[in-house]
Amino acid sequence: MAELPRLRSLRSRLKPQRSRPHHRQPMHARTLLDSLWPITGWRLWQYRALQAGLLLCGLFLMVTVMSVPLELGEQVIFGVLCFACTWVLNKYPGRLITLVMTFVSLTVSTRYLYWRLTETMHMDKAVDIFFGTGLIVAEIYAWVVLVLGFIQTIWPLQRRPVALNLPIEDWPHVDIFIPSYNEPLKVVKPTVLAAMAIDWPIDKLHIHILDDGRREEFRQFAEEVGVNWVIRNHNRHAKAGNINEALKNTHGEFIAIFDCDHIPTRSFLQMTIGWFYRDPKLAMMQTPHHFFSPDPFERNLGTFGRIPNEGELFYGLVQDGNDFWNATFFCGSCAVLRREPLLEVGGVAVETVTEDAHTALKMHRKGYTTAYISIPQAAGLATESLSAHVGQRIRWARGMAQIFRTDCPLLGPGLTLAQRLCYSNAMLHFFYGIPRLIFLTAPLAYLFFGAHVIQESALMIAAMALPHLSHANQVNSRVQGQFRHSFWAEVYEAVLAWYIFRPTLYAVINPKAGKFNVTAKGGYIERDYFDWGIARPYVVLLSVNMAGMVVGLLRMAALQFGWGDLGVPGLDYKLHDSNDQIETVVLNMLWTVYNLMILGAAASAASETRQVRQSHRVQFGLPVRLQGPGTAPFHAETEDFSEGGLKVRMPDGLAFERDTPLTLWMERGDEPPRFSARVAFRNGRSHGLSFEDMSLEQQMDLVQCTFARADTWLGVQDRHHPDRPAYALAEVCRLGLRGCAQVFLRRNGGAAPPASSASA
């Protein structure tokens, strides 16, 4: 309590400074065609009649190319020419080139689906009909998601902040909500301290810890730092109910919401609030969810910092594409909402377990707009274990299925066609469980049962399918490559497919089933182990596909050498069926090999890696000033920082032994904060420093000088290597082989703990 006046004094010194960001008006769907003529330099493009004529010609060309029948040789020539054209075009930048490549890809993919539906479905055997129907349904689903994905991401808006052109005394009151349930105080504290340091008038910034755990230590902490501790006497509707209860007792014009582990930067409000005054109908401004700790895929597969994680596609591209169509989703955190529209739709939605997306949908139905700025303004902790990650995705999948069932965006009033398509794609995405499982097992239908799921020769199937797959991959690599590398979507979906198909189907049948589950953050993994509980579906699928390879080899041997009875019960007639062709066996075996690599990589993700850090390091160079025993103050730069210490690169010729006490000053204006630290380790010029016990004021200073800096997370989306499909495939194959070794050779790093709850 003695530090309270000093903390308040510190907050009062944080004077808001106006930024001068680049101004950019949002682009609406109707201006898409108008915006192309500056790219092409052809002013005639602006005429509506010409636009309509070219659109009709394009559709006519697509229908013609899609439906024209070709023999095998002609189809091969067509596929090679299309690929060669797009391969050449891909070497040139520009959105017009991307649109042309997308058009070609859609044409080729639609041609493949048309061919499948009109020429390959003539099946008369029950086994062929059963497996063939399942495969074509999965392919139709994949085509629909592909088309909607192209529409959703065709033109990322890349919105920029606008200045808040008001006198500081007229800036609005903002309530900051930090909901918490069972997270430890050490996770919540940095978020609260960073929120206190946001550049905003102190008398207009109101911070509230929404503590559904009703913990005494949280009350004491809130009182000590001078923020509000808000509780209720029940936990109905989980996070949504917690926020709605707080809405009744607050009065700010705007509400900023942060998950308790999401640490905001000082510039958060100045980067977002300006758009609300530019657009009076704007109800919500969303910013990315950035995570400074590795998620289970990144940690277990060793890809952190090299390969984009699972969420970067959504926050880096999809939301930006949604913004073009005025369909930005509310993501539950790192967002600002205008109070009036939020109250108009009844507060945060409580009908589903994805209350955030449902709230945005309700706002759009009322005619309000939403927006997205793709500049990270907060950072938090990723899930520690794969089981927790899977549990979180199960909730998302169940919630989106609930929305699709109870408040379907394709129906009902208030939405534009583009908004309906964007919301529908977001919800249909989580129905990939069954299609993904079908693709992972489809070749086994022929290898095990001799079922011809595609009634065509293997060479014709390859000639039709390969252009479809290669073009889709080529365009996705061009559009998405910065945010998701090729072939990694299959790995992510393979991990989750088994776990989400059941809750999504059940949610469609009974949309009121299921409850909100809190994702655990800030935990530890004390030792390496292979989570056999969470990996059980991948192990089964791996085993079945390996058995399929064995049967395929037997089929090839029988067809090639004319073997007689192999002594395998029930296989004789299949091995010597006159319809079996060695090309068909080879095609299905190649498909199986690919599935084995994907499943192996999925299994490898279940190999949990030890994680005992109390605080995660962030790679960032900060100027600091240090003084050691008997030395004058000198300047250095950090290599990384965390809540517990820093790694500093010392000047040449200067080194300190372990446990040497040092005094450290962070660079910040005219009053650099001072910290006491000790050398924890030394590696050449790099010294690891651990902080001594810090006061609350020092903790706030540290957060303000590190996590809350306006530039801390700038450029994090550009840190990855560009996508190279061949290299990405090689990486997935390497991880697939590692996963197969871990499963079949028991290279698991120890026994697993009890089965994960996510698998229940």
Give the topology.
Layout: H1 4-13, H2 37-40, H3 48-67, H4 72-89, H5 95-119, H6 126-153, E1 174-180, H7 185-196, E2 205-211, H8 216-225, E3 228-230, H9 238-248, E4 254-257, E5 263-264, H10 268-272, H11 274-278, E6 282-286, E7 290-291, H12 296-301, H13 312-324, E8 335-338, H14 339-344, H15 355-365, E9 369-372, E10 378-380, H16 386-406, H17 417-429, H18 433-449, H19 458-480, H20 488-509, E11 529-530, H21 532-561, H22 572-575, H23 582-604, E12 607-608, E13 618-619, E14 623-627, E15 634-641, E16 645-649, E17 661-666, E18 674-683, E19 686-691, H24 696-705, H25 725-744
Structural notes for this entry:
The strands form 4 sheets. The protein has a 7-stranded mixed beta sheet with strand order 3-2-1-4-8-6-9, with helices on both faces. The chain has a 6-stranded antiparallel beta barrel with strand order 14-15-16-19-18-17. Among the domains are: 172-384, Spore Coat Polysaccharide Biosynthesis Protein SpsA, Chain A (Alpha-Beta Complex); 621-705, Thrombin, subunit H, CATH 2.40.10. The protein is of the alpha+beta class and 760 residues long. Mean pLDDT is 84; it is low at 1-7, 12-42, 564-579 and 749-760. Helix 6 packs antiparallel against helix 18. It is built from 25 helices and 19 strands.
Which features characterize this protein?
25 helices, single chain, Spore Coat Polysaccharide Biosynthesis Protein SpsA, Chain A, 760 residues, 48% helix, alpha+beta, globular
| Alpha-carbon Rg, integer | 28 Å
Strand content: 5-15%
Strand count, sense and barrel status of the largest sheet are:
7 strands, mixed
Q: How would you classify the helix and strand content by structural class? A: alpha+beta
Classified by CATH, the class of the domain at 172-384 is: Alpha Beta
